[in-house]
Amino acid sequence: VQLVESGGGLVQPGGSLRLSCVASGFTLSNYGVSWYRQAPGKEREKIASITRAGGANYYASFVKGRFTVSRDNDQNTVFLQMNSLKPEDTARYYCNSWNGYRGQGTQVTVSS
Predict the structure, then answer these.
(1) Is the dihedral angle over the CA atoms 96, 45, 85, 9 positive or is it negative?
(2) Edge-to-edge strands, sheet with 17-24
(3) Among 7, 84, 88, 103, which is least packed by CB within 10 angstroms?
(4) 76/91 Cα distance (integer angstroms)
């Protein structure tokens, strides 16, 4: 049973990335998922959530209007579309399923 994040990388300010969170060993569509991030020397912060039905999404104020969380239950995957990226978005991004699983994260670096 695991969650695996992917899609991170190096992007210039103003650019976009789409992160994926894929579950194996359980049906992710049965659970809500939250995305978190943690930058070196900083506390982990919650940035977005999506219910199992895809509704009642949560966004932290500092990503609202730039990030969009969605899910494809047929692919057992949750996505985080990140637009208008800023250097302060640089962090390792993690997904957590609401049944208690967390992936290893994917690094996002925003730099010119």
Answers:
(1) negative
(2) 2-6, 17-24, 77-82, 67-72
(3) 88
(4) 24
Q: What is the pLDDT of residues 22-76, one digit of tens each?
A: 999 999 999 999 999 999 999 999 999 999 988 768 999 999 999 999 999 899 9
Structure tokens at 62: 């500092």
pLDDT in tens, 63-86: 999 999 999 989 999 999 999 999
Give the E-state strand segments of the chain in sequence order: 2-6, 9-11, 17-24, 33-38, 45-50, 58-59, 67-72, 77-82, 91-97, 106-110
